[in-house]
Amino acid sequence: MTVGAEYEVLRHDGYRGHRRGTRFEAILDPNAERRALARGDIRVVARRTPAVQPGSFTLPDGWLPSHEEV
């Protein structure tokens, strides 16, 4: 499963086209992320894990099998 993150740019001259103080979402290579965090170029604001939130979806009529009580 691929996990992305929201990052804030801390580096004075920016990071990968993003200016200092801005936030961006990306899926960075783990080694690139580790190096950028160690240098202080960026910080992780929040991790993003793909998931369906309960109640955020409905199935079309007829997709669920009908259950008969016995």
What does this protein structure show overall?
With 70 residues, this protein is α+β, with helices and mostly antiparallel strands. The protein has a domain at 4-48. It is rod-shaped, with a radius of gyration of 20 Å. It is built from 1 helix and 3 strands. The protein has one helix spanning 30-39, and strands spanning 4-9, 23-26, 42-48. The chain has a 3-stranded antiparallel beta sheet, covered by helices on one side.
Provide tags for this entry.
70 residues, alpha+beta, three-stranded antiparallel beta sheet, 1 helix, 24% strand
Number of extended strands: 3
What form results from the Cα inertia axes? rod-shaped
Order of H and E elements: EEHE
Helical/strand content category:
alpha+beta
Question: What is the arithmetic mean of pLDDT?
Answer: 87
**Unreliable spans:** none
Helix content: 10-25%
User: What is the tally of helical segments?
Assistant: 1
Biggest sheet architecture: 3 strands, antiparallel
Radius of gyration: 20 Å
Content of β-strand: 15-25%
Report the end-to-end length measured between terminal Cα atoms.
41 Å
Q: If strands are numbered along the chain, what order do they take across the biggest sheet? A: 2-1-3
